[in-house]
Amino acid sequence: MDQDFEPYANMDEEIVAELFASALARIEAGEDPQFVLSDVPEQNRAELSSLLGISNYIRQAAQEPVPPMNQARSRAARVAFLDQAAALRAELQQTQVSAQPLWREPTAAPETGWLVQLQRQWTQLVQQLQALLTVRSVRLAPIALTLALSAILASGLVTITRAAVPGEPSFAFQKWVWRMEQSLAAQNQVALIEARQQEELRQEIEEAAAIAKVQATASGDLNLAVRRETLTVRYTGLAGNLLNFDSLLVLRSYQPDANLRATIPITIIGDLKEGALVEVTVNILPGQGDSVQGISARVLEPTAPPSSPSVQPEKPSVVTAPCEPRPIAGWVRYVVNPGDTVSDLAQQRGATTVTIAELNCLPTDNTIVVGQSIFVPAVTTTATEDRKSVV
Amino acid sequence: MMSKGRTYQPSMPVTLPISSWSEEQLLEAAIDFNEAALAEIYDRYEARIYTYIYRRTGEQSLAEDLAAQVFMKMLQAIRDRKTWHSSFSGWLYRIAHNLIIDYYRQRDRHHQVELDDTLELVSESDDPVRSAEHRQTADKLRFAMRQLTEEQAEVVNLRFLDGFSISEVATMMNKTEGAIKALQYRAVMTLRTLLEHEQLHR
Description:
- The complex is a heterodimer of chains A (391) and B (202).
- Chain A is α+β, with helices and mostly antiparallel strands and 391 residues long.
- Chain A contains twelve helices and twelve strands.
- In chain A, strand 3 (242-245) and strand 4 form a beta hairpin.
- Chain A is elongated.
- The chains are: A alpha+beta (391), B mainly alpha (202).
- Chains A and B meet through helix 1, helix 3, helix 4, helix 10 and helix 11 of A and helix 2, helix 3, strand 1, helix 5 and helix 6 of B.
- Strand 11 of chain A pairs parallel with strand 1 of chain B, so a sheet runs across the interface.
């Protein structure tokens, strides 16, 4: 092929294109633009000058500083990449080893290590146990079970679940362990243990969201990466469009299809008041590690009714109550400066745009006005991923 | 590269640290999904691909996502035996370019894209900070660039944003130098018209 582009309209066009290319190359090499222009035939000079001006503008526009990549996401992406490579390598070795496979590889994950099998067995056992026992009845369980639990906790098996992430089989075991810890603790310790478990839960949700985000970008369908989880948490109040469960932030609605914007409001079962123990079913969306979408919330243990006999005024339902920005632990007031955007603020402070927008009841396009006062997470001194230091 | 079969004796220097391998040696090993080679390729290109995508989209989160996708697609291509012919980096940039195009096409399908889509701030201030200025200029240019053809946009990005020479770009895009000069010329002509038009109607 003699020409792999659309031919020039006429000879003049080709000449200008050639002049432009060589003038540009010379300037890029460091020659003085004025000197280069003087070498151009006079009738083309104005045109060339204009084109070189645009080129300069383009190059200046490219001076915009590029923000560094988010370290956590970058690490997660690299891990996912190498995992996929390992999977494909295994696949490749399979086809190399046997020209004619004698048996079919199951479509589930190719890992069949003893550890995974053990996890599966434990999950089955746990699920059977969960069907039989509730938290209350375990308190009354015979000593044997308590001793068995101590043995389990003391063994290395618990360390398997330390890395358990919502959506994985071993997460069910992790939750069971949490419940056991709570039920065995002395009354005055329960609050402390709950707080620690909430913190662990938050971290695991962040991790799950980061990993899911990478998987979602690879598959193209967000629904494949959304993780649905049911958690037992304590309700602490409403903050903007978020239900606050001890700093676990749950949106008042969820997307039935993660690829579309349409949302459905959360279903509340029971009397949702501050202090109630609630079972919430949520969606953890990829990349959305600091807030989750609320699907339903069922009150397990309502708070005790107030001792005062006076009639409480009828409060509007949590779902329909108007949005009022309210800070949560670790968040502070911030006055918007020129040049601020919600996404910049979110990134600087280790939060997501959605959470800041929903807590502050921002309009759907996330506009903020200079001088406006909004709530944002306080800046931490260490890396923004490490939210242990906040609060 | 692709004419070599799956079973071959690699000629890589196994005693040297992977960071000193040449790209050709890395790619040879990568075809077999060698983890160390792939990790090294990833580390060498991740920032460049991310920067390339960021310059063209202006959105960090999106750039991170698409950059991750680029490498996943690379693995798919190795598995499907549809990989680079001459220039690996050119091939990688092309994947990134296609992902960007697909993203905007899909986004435009769902709602109207306006220039202000990338700007979230409503500010009365007429004395913006330097970074805000950069941002606006970059956004204006990005918007104008989306009116170019794919090849024109790629030439502009490779020539002006990444600073590659005509011959380098020709290799990366698998075209003659004459073709690149023509694309460069047409791209700048179009941008001039668009940017001047924008100026007149402010």
